[in-house]
Write a structure and sequence with these properties.
Number of helices: 9
Strand order of the largest sheet: 8-9-10-5-11-12
Shape: elongated
Distance between the termini: 40 Å
Strand content: 25-35%
Largest sheet: 6 strands, mixed
CATH superfamily of the largest domain: P-loop containing nucleotide triphosphate hydrolases
CATH architecture of the largest domain: 3-Layer(aba) Sandwich
Oligomer: single chain
Bound molecules: adenosine-5'-triphosphate
CATH topology of the largest domain: Rossmann fold
Number of domains: 2
Length: 362
């Protein structure tokens, strides 16, 4: 791959994980996990603790053997290829820089391993440090750099070898909130500029939604739904995804001659193929509207100011429902006010009643 002025002439690789299984004792860390990543795409693996994100990333990198399944890079199965021969760059959660090497020597390390001459690798390391905005800091040692700067060096080290695939394992989670937001934009811009196929592990939904082209929500070693952030938010295919990505309320619904009935009215349903007898409707705060008529079946129990909107929690027939209301309208609402509630969504997701959401460790 050639690289000039920080832009590449070649596209990233296509990655396909096919039916990966990895068992540790009685735990199926990967239980038939599949994922396709397009060349140059950034896909985030998102899910609760223990759902298999890191195992999937390590299996892709070659650090974790798999019991079965295939890992294809540009169509070639690399399952038996050693990590160093897979041509992937990796950035970990903790700063994994060599403490006794300056930033520039850290960045040049992979090039040295690949037999690049001293002069050429120093020049390249400086070029990449410039790309991550650290050209002034090349001679500093890790302990002389801030956490955010160390992660930028780690990123520079990973991309210096011009990997076919970049793997990021919670690279921002050890940083404070402000540095994290800045660095996430920087990583995204760099990844797009270099068009490196990237897989990014995070348990932070905001991070996943703001950075990724597509997000794969994982649960129990399997992919639940892989979609663009907008689609994942607006068209979740399960209550689990709806709860994990964004805010949602579950409200018991009934069926009447094939019509799903919620608060006494029929509502259009997104997944009418679900045949469970006992069902809940899964509602986003903006799927519902309230009007303060003083006689409705709901009662305001809580208000949370979010800026332009206020999230109002309404108790309806014993169930709490969260509703987003324009803040200028919400200012008139007080605790205990009676409100009428209705569904304004084009269609609603239904889910088997009481289906385990496995949200306790989210
Ligand atoms: P987290 O967000 O907490 O890092 P994760 O989604 O990355 O979680 P993994 O680290 O992939 O999850 O772990 C998946 C499951 O496999 C967990 O139940 C974990 O305890 C188990 N596991 C992972 N590695 C090993 C191992 N080397 N030996 C035994 N069990 C393991």
């Amino acid at each position: 791959m050639s690289q000039q002025n920080g832009s590449r002439s070649t596209e990233g690789a296509r990655v396909e994980l096919q039916e990966l299984v990895r068992v540790f004792g009685r735990t199926r860390a990967l239980d038939g996990f599949s994922l396709d990543v397009e060349p140059g795409e950034l896909v985030a693996l998102l899910g609760p603790s223990g759902c298999g994100k890191t195992t999937a990333l390590r299996a892709l990198a070659g650090f974790e053997p798999v019991d079965s399944g295939r890992v294809l890079v540009d169509g070639t199965d690399v399952v038996r290829v050693s990590p160093q021969d897979r041509d992937m760059g990796m950035v970990f959660q903790s700063y994994s820089l060599f403490p006794n090497m300056s930033a520039v020597t850290n960045v040049a390390f992979g090039l040295r391993m690949r037999g690049v001459r001293a002069g050429a690798r120093r020049a390249k390391a400086h070029e990449i440090l410039e790309l991550v905005g650290l050209e002034e800091h090349g001679e500093k040692y890790p302990h002389q750099l801030s956490g955010g700067q160390q992660q930028r060096v780690a990123l520079a080290r990973a991309i210096a070898i011009e990997p076919r695939v970049l793997l990021l394992d919670e690279p921002l989670s050890a940083l404070d909130a402000k540095v994290r937001t800045g660095l996430r934009d920087q990583i995204r811009q760099l990844q797009q500029r270099l068009a490196i196929t990237t897989v990014f592990v995070t348990h932070d939904q905001e991070e996943a939604l703001s950075m990724a082209d597509r997000v794969c929500v994982m649960r129990d070693g399997r992919g639940q739904q892989t979609a663009t952030p907008a689609e994942l938010y607006s068209r979740p295919t399960s209550a689990f995804v709806a709860h994990f990505v964004g805010v949602s309320s579950r409200v018991p619904a009934t069926r009447d001659n094939g019509t799903v009935v919620l608060w006494g009215r029929g509502v259009p349903v997104r997944n009418p193929e679900l045949t469970s007898r006992e069902i809940d409707a899964v509602l986003r705060p903006e799927d519902v509207t309230i009007s303060a008529d003083g006689t409705g079946s709901g009662a305001v129990v809580h208000k949370s100011f979010l800026g332009a909107t206020t999230r109002v929690t309404v108790l309806v027939e014993g169930v709490e429902v969260r509703v987003d209301v324009r803040s200028d309208q919400a200012s008139d609402l007080s605790h205990g006010d009676r409100v009428a509630i209705s569904v304004v969504a084009r269609d609603v997701l239904i889910s088997p009643r009481g289906e385990e959401d496995v949200l306790e460790d989210v």
